[in-house]
Amino acid sequence: MAARTTKANPIPSVWARRAREADQPALSRAAIVREAVLMLDADGVEALSMRKLGARLNAGATSLYRHVATKDELMELAVDEVFGEIAVPAADGADWRAAATGAAQSFRATALRHRWLSSVLGQAGLAYLGPNLMSFSERLAALFADAGFPEPERAIETVLSYVIGMSTTEAAWLTTVARSGESEADFIARLMPAAQQAVADHEHLAEAYAAEVVDPVALRDDKFAYGLEVVLDGLALRRPKAS
């Protein structure tokens, strides 16, 4: 009796299978992903569907699914697409803090342009296998390795945990502001009386809410910079002293 062969289940990731050729000139994986990112930026993850995307591209379901099998695969591709926007300064080891700061600031700026990004990073399948994300990780690894960190991946995880955490909170706030139809300053001014009343019986919180917010953008920038400096101060203590 012939032995039965068992076919392994395919790995559920767009990066684990070969891309197909376009079946019509205007439709390609790149075009699909660009349009998906525009939809995500405009309406968020919940509003994105393969049906709506196909309609935007004037493509039938069969044509679309030849390039992207599921919405999960589409999210992997979209995440990798925007990671291509993140700049990581060249790693020469001379001023690792300035380079790490530049990379963190570029990540934050990208995450705030694409406010859906930070919230989906842990859910986007095997997105880390994408070429842009892989290149981003390699450049960060080179930065911290050249700076003398014995475990560059630990330094990367520490910095990214801070940046992603702050960016997620900040993006959610900016989404709330955008839905109000007001500027950030006007929204805060309207919200402040209720916030001050809520903290009236809490001494330390009341003090924090007492000051008028003149420039909310500058305030958010300062908060991010302060926290990043604290993180880098901590990492500096882990860096071996030059002999």
UniProtKB/TrEMBL annotation:
<dbReference type="InterPro" id="IPR023772">
    <property type="entry name" value="DNA-bd_HTH_TetR-type_CS"/>
</dbReference>
<keyword id="KW-0804">Transcription</keyword>
<dbReference type="Pfam" id="PF02909">
    <property type="entry name" value="TetR_C_1"/>
</dbReference>
<dbReference type="InterPro" id="IPR009057">
    <property type="entry name" value="Homeodomain-like_sf"/>
</dbReference>
<keyword id="KW-0238">DNA-binding</keyword>
<dbReference type="InterPro" id="IPR036271">
    <property type="entry name" value="Tet_transcr_reg_TetR-rel_C_sf"/>
</dbReference>
<dbReference type="InterPro" id="IPR004111">
    <property type="entry name" value="Repressor_TetR_C"/>
</dbReference>
<dbReference type="InterPro" id="IPR001647">
    <property type="entry name" value="HTH_TetR"/>
</dbReference>
<feature type="domain" description="HTH tetR-type">
    <location>
        <begin position="26"/>
        <end position="86"/>
    </location>
</feature>
<protein>
    <submittedName>
        <fullName>TetR/AcrR family transcriptional regulator C-terminal domain-containing protein</fullName>
    </submittedName>
</protein>
<keyword id="KW-0805">Transcription regulation</keyword>
<feature type="DNA-binding region" description="H-T-H motif">
    <location>
        <begin position="49"/>
        <end position="68"/>
    </location>
</feature>
